[in-house]
Amino acid sequence: MPQSSPDLPRPQSAGPPGALATRTVLLNVVVDGQGAGPRDGSVVSYPSNKITTSKYTALNFLPLNLWEQLHKFGNVYFLCISVLMWLGEHTKLFIGTIKSFSTILTLLPMMAVSAAVALMDDRRRAAADAEANAQKAFCVEPGPSDAVEKPWEQVAVGDILVVRDGEEFPADLVPLYCSGDEGTCYVSTANLDGETNLKLKSAPAATQKILDQAGICVNDLVKPKFRRQSSSLDEAPARKGNLLTSLSALGVGARVEAEVPQASIHDFTGRLELATGQEEPLGSKQLLLRGTVLRNTDFCVGVVVYTGSETRMVLNTRQATWKQSNLERVTNVVMLVVLAAIGILALLSDVVFNINKSTFHHLWYLIPPDLILPDWLSYWLTFCVLYSNMMPISLYPTMEFCNSMQAYFIKNDVNMYWNELEFPASVQSSNLCQELGQVNYIFSDKTGTLTQNVMELKRIWIAGRMYGKVTEEKGFCGGEELRTARGEGQGRDIDLFLEVLAVAHTAVVSAPTNGGPPGYEAESPDESALVEAVAQLGWRFASRVGERMVVAQEVGASKEIEYQILAVNAFDSARKRMSVVVQKGGEFFLFAKGADNVMLDRSSVASKNLGANLDEALTNFAGEGLRTLVIGRRTLRQDECRRWLDKYQAAQKSLEDRDGNLARVAEEIEVDLDIVGVTAIEDKLQTGVPETIEKLREAGINLWVLTGDKLETARNIGFSAKVLEAGMTIATLDRAPDSTAASVANAVDAEAARLSSLESLEKAMMVTGAALEVILGDMQLKMRFLAVAQNCSVVIACRVSPLQKAQMVRLVREGVKPTPVTLSVGDGANDVPMIQEAQVGVGIAGREGRQAVNNSDFAIGQFSYLQRLLLVHGRWNYRRACKFTLFTFWRNAVQVLLIFYYTFLSGYSGTSIFEDWIRLSFNFLCSFPIMATGCFDQDVTDRVALAYPKLYTIGRCGMDLNTVKICQALASAVVHSLTLWGITCMAYPSMELLGVSDYYSWGTAVYTCLMLDMNYRVLFLNSTHNRYTLGSIMVSSALYVFYLVVYPCTRLFADLLGPNMYMVPYQLATSVPFWLSLLTVLTVMVNLDLFLMMVGAWRQTQNGDLAKAKKICAGPSGSWRSPYELLLVPPDPKADQELEEPQTIDTSSFAQQKHRGLYYDGSHFTVRLCSFLAALLLIGLGYLALSSSKEAAQVRIHYEGEGIHVDPLGTYDEEVVHAQPNCSGIRTCTIQVKVPRTMTPPILVYYAAGPFYQNYNDYMKSEVAKELMAKPAPEKLRETLCSKSTRIDSDGNQIVPCGLKVMSMFNDTFSVSGLAIDKKNVAWASDVERYRNPEDYLKRPGTVWLHDLYPGIVSQDEGVKNEQFVTWMRPAALRRVVKHYGWIQEKLEAGRVLKLSIQSRYPVREFDGYKHLIITELGPFGGRHHGFGYTLMFAGAVCMLLGAAVTVMVRYQDSTAQVQAYSDQAKDPLI
Fold it and tell me: Which residues does 1283 contact at the CB level (< 8 Å), separation at least 6?
């Protein structure tokens, strides 16, 4: 062979791809050193064969992932809020009350986690891409060997490849030569459509013949394994040569003209043109698809026609269809409501502020902010930011985590594992897990879904007689009847019938396995069943070589009959039939089989005379639930056959609408058929189908069965599957061939009238595809039909196409209001449109391939698993999801409402009640417990859920998440927040006297009460208390305690993050009112929620199944017990054991959700007991607090502020001294005070002033913590935090330390004649220790120090360590200042007169303020404050009233429901 040029041209094409309806691919062959080249000189490049399913690169990852994440409403919201917070911090547009980091540090980790998950998924795809692209292909190119290896990604259009047995095709190829018989090869398409049957493909006869004659040789690549029945290669096994030599026989200029790329894997139109001008049509059998595998064939040589993104495999690859669940839609609506609530709360706060702003703008110790925007707008933005956390930032990650866990449990459920195919349940759309608990309509295929899709020929009809019967025996049992009939002269009729079945098919004989007989590979189970059955009856399909078929007739004298297959008219859903044109000897025949309606329309006159007899057979077969095919044949004249074949070949060669042309040509010959028989194939129901349908219908789910079977078959399958029941009123809508659209409309109206008059009866409807063609084409008629269908619990549609199935689903989705949740379930490719149309698509792993599974949201092995998927997992997941969704919104509403209430006590300045770093932990810490609820909570066990399907009503009717539930959650948030607010506010005066009433301490106390309430609430919401739900609450609580230890109680972190938080938890831990507040909040909330639960349970007593199930789960007394100790269903002995099989899923008790735990349903006795015990406890503690308050003697001196009475509850008139006339203003006064009761030391001396807004936002920020701790403070920081007047005095000296708090320190002084006031130990020791004077204290020139500002109060030696100053620097939480002044360590007897000297310097007159001096005893509850004791006693009284209300309610219920209870017990003695 001449050596080829080393620079062989690359494959090219004439004309750009897609410009025309075809493309021309030149074969890359070399003849005498000359290669292929474009005829018109144009060069067209095709896509690379490199496959890229990953979407991220190093450059686009951040922007692309950010863009994807910003499609979530919550992420956009919090990003905008973060920007607003930053603007508030760094500009003067409005007041930045919350630091932007507090939101950003929460948002960024969540987005980072989502990004990391997306990146890991993408990297896995990229690794798979790299592995696929690096696979090696054998390409025919000039070189030392027949073919050279090259990576798949380098394969190009026009390349000629050699593919060996067991190898995957690297691109879409047109075969030029196949080593199988007559140029055939077998291909496995399982990777594309999941079908396990091998497909027969073939090379064009022209190239097969040329290359065979040229002596194609691949000895270097292939060792033959499969013997051909006839081949020239077998005659010359020692051939030597080069592939290029053989391929040169095709000649330069050989080309393939192919259609432009398209997605159909079953269709292909093209034409092969050789250099000689010879043409040959190409069809789907001449296209080898990328991803398919060569089987049972030594090798195949083909030319690449499509690469990379243009291959069928890639064109059929699509992203999983994103479906939004009902929960997500409701959540988005709730988010909009929350957004509106934030705006309304902000507007209310804004209006109140603008009404009262003059009050704050004239306070001498405050400097109004200089804002750019108008006050009304700037403060509205301020409050919007302040209340922004009402939108739960943690909802998305919580939802994603819970969805993932729910999907994990579904995938590992051993009760949904199908052993026969080793197929576990799978989840493709985890966001729809809770949607499974809300299904209103199920649309189900029949064949392979309700039935097993294991076909067996059971009965036949031939020449007026029926043979066989339906038995449990495998296969056709009418052989003996046929033999008898042959003896009665029916042999010819029987053979005519069997011959058609033996020849009219596309099956192939497969190689024997394990020494057994040869089998058959067919395109459908029906076809395989018929071929196998007729083989047993004496007409055995023996072999197929190219277009030659051999059938062994083994009836009587055995003989082999050879047929030449001249044409095959393929089956499709529109034609509903297939036929073959064959030549047997010198005779020509048409053999056909198909659906009865289309076959009878094409029957001969003689066959039409069979009429009633044939109809009777069809009706009988359908009555037994069998699938029928009518068998026909016709003898053709030779000239007629030749003329028709010319048309057929012309249609085959057409490049445009080839399928349509072939169908029209087939119509011409498929006429005047002689009907020779009918087959009846049994497709048995799957195990558990009737029970499953019964359960689903009992759950209130409407079932629509959409099938291609005829009306009678569907009706009988309906009864056997319990889709239909005896006593049902069944409406039927059909359309006769000659009927009009008006008649269908009249039938719909007539059935509507008939069914509406039968209100009390169960109703069903059956409708045919012919009727649906009219109904679905008319909008008004369609809605009338839907109205009728809605009144039926079952609808069966027969003879429907895949498109009509999807249209029926869409009709319900769009026509029924409110929009129901629809579920479609099917097992075949024809069910994919229906599956994709429904909100939830479920694929059955059947025998028709895996396209339904691949395109579904969930996949299961058997229809019977649907009841567990819905009634157990769906219900659990729905209830869990509703709980964590409502709780997440509820908890953030409670937190923000507390901030809202605080706004009115902090001068409307935008101060949050919670310190930033404490508040930052809220979403994180509160997410752990509710995540456990979303993953592990079970209100009833799986056995109870299956035993009482009506429990599914909760999800189907949306009872756990609706407008009422949202309003209840909002009302609950208001009640919880007000209760918590009231209790902590009433504890505040006691905390003041104990020195823990500053903003940071009281805010932390309120926050701790809030956290306790949140964790308790999750505990209350849980129906099942197991190690995970209880453990998550303990983890959350422990993390909070750990956080308080690490952050506020560790000097390093406190100095870095929040210096004023230092040792706050320690100080709170020493406060009795703080602990009592926690106890009171918990007790009141528990009793209130238990009471509301009892009210809800009382209302649900009308639901007998729900009440019965709850009784079963709770036990006779409604006490704590294991949820698996049931009376109805015996406990599962394997509940706590590790299952051994199957190995492919996790069978641990964790994965099977068999968690040991406790279940509590709240019996009335327990609720009442809890209420009365709580009442006794709180009333007792209230009495102790009240007694302590009464025992605390005090003297209160009002020395400025007329008419203002702010004394605590329980203050007596004789304890109050009004000294305003003597001491008001800036002056020194002396007054005498008589001690009303004996006081024992230590006696506290403190002052109170108000109204004073130390909690005003700008006021609290106005300090430089670094200055107070002797750390370098940049001047820029001082300028940011301290206004000029508080930083530089009138002489230009620097004020150190600076700020509003420093400049407004209370500077009145007090003394008692003859008594020493010890001014030590009035401040926290931790604060005194951290406050330090700078190293250059008193040495820095041009500086005004603290002692210069407050001479006589702050000594030069003390500086910032002055305890009065240190105490002042802790801002009060409410709008008054109560600060310790000192201690009297001497006993004061009753009646003793104290001479007090007051030097009044602090101005309060201009804002109508007051100043008090108080001398008091201290107890464990503080000093005089009856209010806290009253609060505790009132809380106890509320608990008692709630218990009493439950008692009254239960007695009323018992008196009205006694008869019903006896009735229930008589019906079910287990209850």
Answer: 367, 1262, 1300
Q: Which two tokens stand for residue 1124?
A: 């698996």
Query: What local confidence, expressed as pLDDT, does residue 330 receive?
Result: 84
* Amino acid at the residue 968: Q
Assess whether the previous peptide bond of 818 is cis (omega < 30° from 0): yes
- For the chain, first and last CA: distance in Å? 94
Measured CA distances, 644 to 504, 637, 663, 1051 (Å): 18, 11, 13, 97
For residues 303-311, average pLDDT: 91
Q: What pLDDT is stored for residue 1390 in this prediction?
A: 93
Q: Which residues are part of the catalytic machinery?
A: 445
1294: three-class secondary structure by DSSP:
strand
What is the reported pLDDT for 737?
63
DSSP run (H or E) holding 1096 = helix 1072-1099
| pLDDT score, position 79 | 85
pLDDT-derived band at 1090 (thresholds 50, 70, 90) equals confident
pLDDT band for position 1319 (50/70/90)?
very high
**Is 1320 exposed, middle or buried (CB count within 10 Å of its CB: 0-12, 13-18, 19+)?**
exposed
Residue 9: pLDDT above 50? Answer: no
Residue 333's identity, in one-letter code, is V
Classify residue 1081 by burial, with Cβ atoms within 10 Å: 0-12, 13-18, 19+: buried
* Residue whose pair of structure tokens reads 């019938």 in the numeric block: 497
Q: What are phi and psi of 366, to 5 degrees?
A: -115, 145
- 1088-to-188, 969, 982, 1020, 1082 alpha-carbon distances in Å: 66, 14, 15, 11, 10
Give Cβ neighbours of residue 687 (< 8 Å, ≥ 6 apart).
Answer: 862, 864
Give the lowest-confidence range in 403-407, 436-440, 525-529. Answer: 525-529
Q: What distance in Å separates the CA atoms of residue 46 and residue 25, rounded to the nearest whole number?
A: 11
d(CA 909, CA 96): 10
Contacts of 1262 (CB under 8 A, 6+ apart): 1281, 1282, 1283, 1286, 1299, 1300, 1301
- What is the Cβ-side half-sphere exposure of residue 352, based on CA atoms within 13 angstroms? 16
- What's the CA gap between 1391 and 1243, in Å, rounded? 16
